[in-house]
Amino acid sequence: DAKTTQPTSMDCAEGRAANLPCNHSTISGNEYVYWYRQIHSQGPQYIIHGLKNNETNEMASLIITEDRKSSTLILPHATLRDTAVYYCIVRPMDTGRRALTFGSGTRLQVQP
Amino acid sequence: GAVVSQHPSRVICKSGTSVKIECRSLDFQATTMFWYRQFPKQSLMLMATSNEGSKATYEQGVEKDKFLINHASLTLSTLTVTSAHPEDSSFYICSARSGLQLGFFGQGTRLTVV
Question: Taking CA atoms, which of A79, A99, B85, B110 is between 20 and 30 Å from A112?
Answer without folding.
Answer: B110
